[in-house]
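pasting for ref
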Amino acid sequence: MFKLSEIKELIKLVDQTSVQELEIENEGARLAIRKPGRTEVVNVQTAPAPATYVPAAAPAAAPAPAAAAAPAPAEAPKKEADDREGLHAIVSPMVGTFYRAPSPDAPSFVNKGDKVTEKTVVCILEAMKLMNPLEAEVRGEIVDILVENGQLVEFGQPLFLVKPE
């Protein structure tokens, strides 16, 4: 069963992100939060199942008329794509708050230029008052940190770029 404080925290996290739907099953309880303009909470008893996250499909954008589209410089996107080619993205496995250090007065887990291994902790993600360490899962060098300390991140959002060895 879900505690009211957990449900409130999940609603707050969904409201602060572009996530449109969140479904979780845990210990015989199912919780669904949907955001089609307002947040709806459903808490129903079901068979026990592990906690899961189901991201909602993003609505398809209507194609822009060809006459209204301004030609974009082709070199800038190509150069950025070339710079990031061959890099591994460490992505967020959950919705939560990103922290670069274990505490506000501690040094960051990693910085640009640092070497990491598969087991190197690169950050902490806080979700529902739980601190979850995130490991690099790749050996290489941190070339970019894509989010700010204390920023709310979404499931699948790239956090770091690593040049694999």
